[in-house]
Amino acid sequence: MSLKLYYDLLSQPSRALYIYLQVCKIPFEKCPVALRKGEHLSEEFKKDISRFQKVPVIKDGGFTLAESIAILRYLSREKQFSNEWYPKDSKLQAQVDEYLEWQHNNIRTFGTLYFRTKWIQPLLTGEPPNAKKVATYEKHLAECLSSMEELFLKDKPFIAGDKATAADIWAACEIEQPRITGFDPVAGRPVLSKWLNTVRKTFSPYYEEAHLILNKLVAKANAETK
Amino acid sequence: MSLKLYYDLLSQPSRALYIYLQVCKIPFEKCPVALRKGEHLSEEFKKDISRFQKVPVIKDGGFTLAESIAILRYLSREKQFSNEWYPKDSKLQAQVDEYLEWQHNNIRTFGTLYFRTKWIQPLLTGEPPNAKKVATYEKHLAECLSSMEELFLKDKPFIAGDKATAADIWAACEIEQPRITGFDPVAGRPVLSKWLNTVRKTFSPYYEEAHLILNKLVAKANAETK
After folding, report:
1. Which pairing describes strands A3-7 and A29-32: parallel, antiparallel, or unpaired?
2. Does a structural domain hold residue B83?
3. Which part of the chain is the GST C-terminal domain (chains A, B) (predicted)?
4. Who's near B189: CB < 8 A, 6+ residues apart?
5. Do A119 and A214 sit in the same domain of this protein?
6. Model ipTM value
């Protein structure tokens, strides 16, 4: 098999690509990378897999590519499959792209900062999280979630219109992440809540498979706060 | 003319698109938006131009699109022009995309945070900048500039190889921005310095035209620090 995906299911864009490849029926070899063990930080990983030292990364024959959204677009050109999830129609594709580009400095940035500060740093240091920073990032994260409803889901069931696309997969994988800390991204947001449930169902069973570890951590967080 | 570009030449992605449209000889109507006057924040702008209330935005007939990189890709499909700046070759295009996606949470994020904290906030509030924050963002910005050299320019003259592409335009426009504060992004970075000069020449005279106001502000900042 020529296509290899290097991923960790606790990385949002890794999960998105993992789901995408499967719903598109693109054959690939699973190459898990344990971020928690720092496997991506080794000199070997840098030399043999990716100079970026991050996941996801693909190797397609001799071609290496990082950045999940660049990978999504490359696969849409290179692999033979139905394009219903990354539409060929130019305007529709542009709307998917508009979301995917918007996401970086919104839900991706603030979801990640919140998650790192509240969950990863305490795990690494054994110290309680910086409450002031957590509160600041939570405020920004909440604004991003409201923007998602307001800018993308106000008058249509999916981000790019009447049909689910890759934009919904990438968005949902970001939104699931802070749940690991006990945060509920859809509380008080009926539009987002309805959309998230529909996305989960649309990409079943791959969606659940990709979120299996995450959902165990969520259950643990929820049990601890009870 | 059916294509309208809404832009402010003090916005990095606005400059990138402004240059790109001109080097590609795509006819467009110039619709400047004065961010400093808050023109993008009006209810009119939100209703008639873009719900995102940011620039750049295009209107192509009845179709509105935000996010400069989504716009770049849309134009590459929709408009008839030579594609040398956004290559049709799939692997080359993937490398351009890899940079454009990487950029968001690196040079774009930290260049913007540095610029806002050191220049925009003092301008708006009349207060001196928060020195601790400026120092933190400057450190991150410096790391991003080193990463640009290390990850993208170590063994090739341009980001995607031997030829300049849209990735170089977008990158250069980001790197120019903090110069307004008196910061020199290429000091002690011979690789980046050589590359930036080549990009400026490659996209002349449109590059200079797009950076005219910026360069006046840079001259002012440099005169003040002497």
Report:
1. parallel
2. no
3. 89-226
4. B145, B146, B149
5. yes
6. 0.96
Sheet with B3-7: strands ordered across: B29-32, B3-7, B57-60, B63-66
| Domain's final residue, options A78, A107, A122 | A78
Select from B12, B77, B101, B110 the residue whose CB has the most chain A CBs within 10 Å, as the one to mutate to test that interface: B101
Residue A84 is predicted with a pLDDT of 82
Q: How many domains does chain B have?
A: 2
Tell me which residues of chain A have a C-beta less than 8 Å from any C-beta of chain B: 51-52, 63, 65-71, 73-74, 77-78, 90-91, 93-95, 97-98, 100-102, 104-105, 108-109, 151
CATH code at position B176: 1.20.1050.10
**Residues A99 and A200 reside in one and the same domain:** yes
Residue of chain A whose alpha carbon sits nearest to that of B72: A94
The answer to whether position B85 is within a domain reads no
Please enumerate residues of B whose Cβ is less than 8 A from a Cβ of A: 51-52, 63, 65-71, 73-74, 77-78, 90-91, 93-95, 97-98, 100-102, 104-105, 108-109, 151
Q: Is the domain of A108 the same as that of A34?
A: no
Which residues 6+ apart lie within 8 Å of A9 measured at CB? A15, A18, A32, A210, A211, A212, A213, A214
Query: Would the CB atoms of B108 and A105 count as touching at under 8 Å?
Result: yes
What residues in A contact B54, CB-CB < 8 Å? none
Phi-psi category of residue B208: left, alpha or beta, with phi > 0 → left and psi -120 to 50 → alpha: alpha
Q: Does a cis peptide bond (omega within 30 degrees of 0) precede residue B190?
A: no
Task: Mark whether B104 and B184 lie in a shared domain.
Answer: yes
Query: Which contiguous run of DSSP H or E holds residue A214?
Result: helix A212-225
User: pLDDT per residue over B175-186, tens digit each?
Assistant: 999 999 999 999
The model's pLDDT over B2-53, given as tens digits with 9 standing for 90+, comes to 899 999 999 999 999 999 999 999 999 999 999 999 999 999 999 999 999 9
Hey, are the CB atoms on A105 and B105 less than 8 Å from each other? yes
Whole-number pLDDT of residue B188: 96
Beta-bridged to residue A59, according to DSSP, are: A4, A64
Min Cα–Cα distance to chain B from A97, Å: 5
Do A211 and A169 reside in the same domain of the chain?
Answer: yes
Residues B48, B18 within the same domain: yes
The CATH number covering residue A39 comes to: 3.40.30.10
Contact residues on chain B for A65, CB-CB shorter than 8 A: 94-95, 98
* B69 lies in the same domain as B109: no
Mean pLDDT across chain A: 95
Query: Which of B63, B94, B101 shows the shortest C-beta gap to A91?
Result: B63
Residue B201 belongs to domain spanning: 90-225
